[in-house]
Amino acid sequence: MKEVSKPDSQQKSLSGVKEIAKRANVSIATVDRVIHNRSGVSEKTKARINKIIEELDYLPNLMASRLALGKVTRLAAIIPQVTEESEFWHAPLNGLKRAEKEIRQFGVRIDPMLFDPSSRSSFSAVAKAAMESDYDGVILAPSFVEESKHVLEKCQQRGIPFVFLDSNIPDQSNLTYIGPPYFQSGYVAANLISRLLRNSRKLLVVNIATESDSFNYLQIENGFRKYFRENSLPSEITRIDIRDTEYESVARYLTYVFMFHAEIEAVFVTNSQVSTVASFLYNSQRRHVSVIGYDYTPENIRYLKNGTIDFLICHQAEDQGYRAAMSLYQHLVLGQQVPKEHFMPIDIITRENHEYYRN
Amino acid sequence: MKEVSKPDSQQKSLSGVKEIAKRANVSIATVDRVIHNRSGVSEKTKARINKIIEELDYLPNLMASRLALGKVTRLAAIIPQVTEESEFWHAPLNGLKRAEKEIRQFGVRIDPMLFDPSSRSSFSAVAKAAMESDYDGVILAPSFVEESKHVLEKCQQRGIPFVFLDSNIPDQSNLTYIGPPYFQSGYVAANLISRLLRNSRKLLVVNIATESDSFNYLQIENGFRKYFRENSLPSEITRIDIRDTEYESVARYLTYVFMFHAEIEAVFVTNSQVSTVASFLYNSQRRHVSVIGYDYTPENIRYLKNGTIDFLICHQAEDQGYRAAMSLYQHLVLGQQVPKEHFMPIDIITRENHEYYRN
DNA sequence: CTGAAAGCGCTTACAG
DNA sequence: CTGAAAGCGCTTACAG
C-alpha cells in the first residue's frame, strides 16, 4: 500500500486540493468539481479523484472555502414578538443572536421576523414577507398551523430548508424540530404536583391562551393525565380554559372556580401565563395553594422567589433559538446531517436553584 | 463628517485591511502591524490608522486570519481518567471532544491527558508531561491542590493561560473556573431532601472519596447545613466519611451506621458515589429510605429508574468540558474577554425527566 | 519605520 | 471534459 514518493524538490506534503490534484494528475479545478459533485468531469477521472480523497481521508478546509466563496447565507426567523404576554420569546431571540454572533464569521446572517402571536393575520403577513425575500433557510414557530403550512409548501417548492421552533407540526418535511418533549413535560409536571398534594388531593389545570393554534398544551395535558392514571393516584382534576390573558379576566374565572372548588390544593398552569394565576392567588391570600407552571420569565421568577410558585418547568428557551439556527448552519454550511428532532431537557426550577439557571 | 470620495475607477468598497490601507495611504503590512500592536510603526501613522479602524468599525476576518497564520493552537486537558469510580469524567471528556470538533477548523487541537484520580503521583506525572510539551493553554481538574499549584506556577511563568474544570482553587490567576456552584448546590440538595422527610426527620450525609483533595464536598455540606439552619428545620443530621469506594467497605460502614440510627429517613451522598449507597439500601431492603446524590452516571441512573434514588443533582458535566475548551479558544484565538467564573446550573433529575437530560 | 510580493486552501470565471 | 490564473482577507519574511 505504501507508495514510492517521486523525488520531489519539496518533501513537504502539499495541502488538500493541491495534493489531491497532484496525485490524480489533474488540476485543482477538476478536483474542486469532483468535491462538489459538479458536472463536467469524466467518470474515469472522477473515480480516480474520489479514490484519492478516500485514501487521504480528506476534509475540505471550511475557512478557506467560505473565504473564497464570499457567500452570505441568510436565515429568516419567524417567531412571536416579545410582549407582556409573550415574554417567553425573549430567550429564543437571544439564542438566535448568540448563534449569529458565532457563525456570522462564516457569512451567516439571521433576520428575526416577528409577528403578533395573538393575530393570525400578522403571522400571515410576516410569513409572506419572509417568502418574498428569498432566504436560504427558515426558522419557524408554527403558532398558526394552517398558515404555517402555506409557508412551508413554498419552502419545499424552492428547496429551502426550515426548522420548527418550540412547537411542532408532525408530518412536515422540516429539517428538524427544536423544542420541548411536551408530553413527557406534562408527565413531569404531574409528578411534581403530586409531591405537593396533601389532603383533599383536588387540583386545577389551567390553560390560558388567546388565538394561537399551538396544541402543545394538549400534549402536556395528556402527559399530565397519564401520570395520574399510571400511578392510580386518587385525585380530582378540574380543568379550565381561559381565552384571554388579561389579569382581570383570569381573576374572574379563578374566583368563580374557587367558589365551587374551595379545596383545591394545587394549580398547574400549562404555559408561561402562570404568573397571572400566581398573582391572583397571592392577592387573594391563597398562599396555601401550590402552583406549578412553565418558563423562566421575570414575572414567573418573581412569584417563584416569593414562594407563590413552587416549581417552574423550563426548556432552555435561549438554547432553543441557538440550536434552531445552528441546525440550519450545520445543514447549509457544513453539509452535515441533522437529527430530525432535538428535544430539550425538562428542567425543574425552584426558588433554590433558579439563580444559576441559564434560560 | 462625510468625506468626499475620490473619483476611483472602482466604486466597490474594498475589504478590510485594503480599505484601511488605502484611506491611510500606507501598505496593508503597516495596517497589519497596527492591528496587532506590533512595533515598528511611527506614532503618527499608528494614530491615523487606528482612527480609520474606529471609523470603519473594522473587525478582522477571522477565517482569513487563521488561514494565513496556519498556526495550530494546542490545548492540554489534564483530567481524571474514566474508571468505575470516576464514571463522572466520561461526560467532560465528551464535551472536550465536541469542542475540538467545532474549533479544529480554526487550528485548535485538544490533547486529553488523563491521570488516576486516586493517585497523587499519577497526577504529578501527567502534569509534568503536559508542562514539558509546551501547550498554548491548559485545562485542569485540580484534584490535588499542592501539585496543581506547582503546574500553575509554571504556566504563569510562561504566560500560558489555564482554566479550572469542575473544582476551583481560589486566588489563582486562572483564566476562568468552569464548574458547579457547590455551596448553592448543597443548599438545593437540602431543600430537596427536606421535601422527602416525613417522621423521624433523621438524615445521613455520606462522603465517599479516596485520595483527592478536592474540597468541593465541604462547600456542598456548608450549603446543605445552611438550608437547615435558615429554615430552622428540626432535623438530626449524622455525617460520615468513607475513604474507600469499594462496595464492601461502604456497606460495612453503612450497616454500622444504620445499627445505631435505624430511623434514618433519607441519605444525602455528596458526590457521584451515590449508586454504591443506593445499592446497599436496595440490597438490604431499605426501600423506605430516600436518597439524593450527584451526577448522571449509568449506575446512578439505574437506581434512579428503579426508585432507590429520588433525586440526582447534575451540573451538565458534558458542557463543563465543552465550555472549558471554548473559554481558552475565545481567549487565545478570538482574543475575547472571558468571565472569571462560569457556574453551571444546578439541575434536578428525577425518574420522570432523566430521559431527556443531556448530561 | 515602511512596502511589494508570495502564500494560506479553496473557488470561479474564462479559455480551450 | 480540463486547466491556468486571479481572487477571498489576512500574514509574513524580506528588502529597503
Please, could you describe this protein's structure?
- The structure is a homodimer of 359-residue chains.
- In chain A, strand 1, helix 5 and strand 2 form a beta-alpha-beta unit.
- In chain A, the strands form two sheets. A six-stranded parallel sheet of chain A has the order 2-1-3-4-5-11, sandwiched between helices.
- The N terminus of chain A is likely disordered.
- Chain A is elongated, with a radius of gyration of 27 Å.
- Chain A folds into three domains: 44 residues, no CATH class; 136 residues, 3-Layer(aba) Sandwich (Rossmann fold); 133 residues, Rossmann fold.
- Chain A has 13 helices and twelve strands.
- By secondary structure, chain A is an alpha/beta fold.
- At the A-B interface, helix 4 and helix 8 of A face helix 4 and helix 8 of B.
- Chain A binds a DNA duplex (16 and 16 nucleotides) through helix 1, helix 2 and helix 4.
CATH fold name of the largest domain in chain A:
Rossmann fold
Content-based structural category of chain A? alpha/beta
Strand tally of chain A, please?
A: 12
Report the largest inter-chain contact: A-B, 29 and 29 residues
- Anisotropy-based shape of chain A: elongated
Number of helices of chain A: 13
What is the C-alpha radius of gyration of chain A, as a whole number of Å? 27 Å
The CATH class of the largest domain in chain A is identified as: Alpha Beta
User: What's the order of the H and E elements of chain A?
Assistant: HHHHEHEHEHEEHEHEHEHEHEHEE
Biggest sheet statistics of chain A = 6 strands, parallel
Give the termini distance of chain A in whole angstroms. 54 Å
The domain tally of chain A reads 3
Shape-level CATH architecture of the largest domain in chain A:
3-Layer(aba) Sandwich
